[in-house]
């Protein structure tokens, strides 16, 4: 079977959604509600796991609970690879996005209605698979709305990312309010309602999307269908056996996800570097991506602790009184999206203004790791304090530093992955960047076992120092890394 070529988008003259095509409103909506439900659920997930049963939780030890959250977060990014493959080889981005949204709804309903660990297990697996599929394909579908030379493209993507951060801002606040007043399952239920709203809106608007959104760029030959189905069934059976025999347990999930991600990353690098379809320049650029990959892992292993250690810290250390009202623990996670919305435009303007004089990508990565390490050191003045001893303003300031570090690495990483990618492996290089996020996220959950609220200084100082050393190491290696990158900055 010959590969079907995606239809080149024609110029879309529709300007009904703030100057953008009206179809963008439906993708904007489903992504906004997906982020609302994702961050809303994640905002209360950890405390649900470790709160006692008398507080409405499951009473799981904090270290185990943090490992579960980290493994779940890592699995979301791992499943983006599956979502991209299904779109590229079998169904097209739009169909995978639609089905993924339904899977997410089912996952949130399971968390809201099923009791105990059963609801957690079923719910998190479904949400991870669905979020990975949606995350992998929503951006691709947005791209089909514009011709390559449409000047509205960048503004359209900016509007799309506004939706992402709007959902991420509102989700933890509203689910936290329901959790603290009515109970955890009401919070999970609100996440399910939010995602359902996004799915309903998208289901009405998806028919108006261009046919190129449904195109399958590299169709899988029908002769290989039985092999793929067999592998999928074998994988499901293997996981079921490992769970039933106790090999996969709630207390080792983070380690398993870390191991799987390391194996997948090594395999991806090996396949690309050993391929005969790349030339010496492309191979050198892939080697140049390796130190960026390692730095990205170090960054995300600290940054993603917003959902693990910082949640515990906010619960036990933070003075959450605001205007005489105690805000829910999850509300702290709404601070970062506000800074993202404010600062992303500032950073874009700075890079545009500097032009060719802006720092190189390895320099940005190195500075990002150093800034992230410095953010952890900022916890030290408040370490080992009593209950409610850390001012809310201090956490706001620390999360501001988190955001600065993120904007130096996250959007830059996606961009450089496409620049360094060999022509034959463009999607795989982006997948490698997502694997660095998956690995860092899983590590962030694994690290919770070393966090002791009674003796926080070693934890924050050690991790902060490691990140700073990683950043300094990359800064000292900028010239050789740029030589490997062969003209890509």
Task: Describe this entry's structure for a reader.
The chain folds into 2 domains: 20-220, Growth Hormone, Chain: A; 264-489, Growth Hormone, Chain: A, CATH 1.20.1250. The protein is 71% helix and 1% strand. It has helices spanning 24-50, 62-91, 93-113, 116-143, 153-181, 184-205, 225-244, 253-274, 280-303, 309-316, 335-354, 361-377, 392-420, 426-446, 457-476, 478-485, and strands spanning 321-322, 325-326. It has a two-stranded antiparallel sheet. The protein starts with 23 loop residues before the first helix and ends with a helix. Residues 1-7 have low confidence and may be disordered. It is a multi-pass membrane protein. It holds the Pfam family PTR2.
Characteristics:
single chain; 489 residues; mainly alpha; Growth Hormone, Chain: A; 2 domains; globular; disordered N terminus; MFS_dom; cell membrane; membrane; MFS_Transporters
How would you characterize the largest beta sheet? 2 strands, antiparallel
The computed structural class is: mainly alpha
Q: Which class of the largest domain in CATH terms?
A: Mainly Alpha
Give the second-level CATH assignment, the architecture of the largest domain: Up-down Bundle
Distance between the termini: 39 Å
Element-by-element helix/strand order? HHHHHHHHHHEEHHHHHH
> Strands across the major sheet, in which order?
1-2
- Could you say which overall geometry the principal axes of the C-alpha atoms support? globular
Radius of gyration: 22 Å
For the secondary structure, the number of strands is 2
Helix percentage: over 70%
Contiguous uncertain segments of 5+ residues: 1-7
Mean pLDDT: 84
CATH third-level topology of the largest domain? Growth Hormone, Chain: A
Strand-residue proportion: under 5%
Overall domain count: 2
Q: Write the CATH homologous superfamily of the largest domain.
A: MFS general substrate transporter like domains
Total helix count? 16
